[in-house]
Task: structure prediction
Amino acid sequence: MNNPPSTPPVRNFIPAAVILALIGWGGLYALMNFTYPTVGPRWLFFFLGVLAISGTALPLVAFLNNRFPSTPPVSPSVIVREAIWFGIYFPTIAWLQLGRVLTPALVLLLAAGFVAIEILLRMRERSQWTP
Result:
């Protein structure tokens, strides 16, 4: 008898989450303490911010997808993609704050845009699913 597909467990994502978080947060620590805020380190800040937030969000996203399953069940690539959305969101907010253009409305609109993109991607995946 075939077992129905299910969402992968959180423990499958722990090694990747630890590696991403260590590289990201460790790199941010070193960047903040040992460099000057010139152009190169500024872009490195955004890159390391994506790694740090993605690694931190990965177990949380995996847990939420396990806690609230969907049909069809999510694949590991969907969980990683959702964690990367978090990783992109927060450095984008930091970048907008550097230019002094960040407003509460922009924070909400940006979050709503990312959520809308993810919903549309999930709807597309659901429409192509065959049991």
Q: What stands out?
A: The helical segments are 14-34, 39-67, 76-98, 104-127. The CA atoms of residues 20 and 55 lie 5 Å apart. The mean pLDDT is 93.
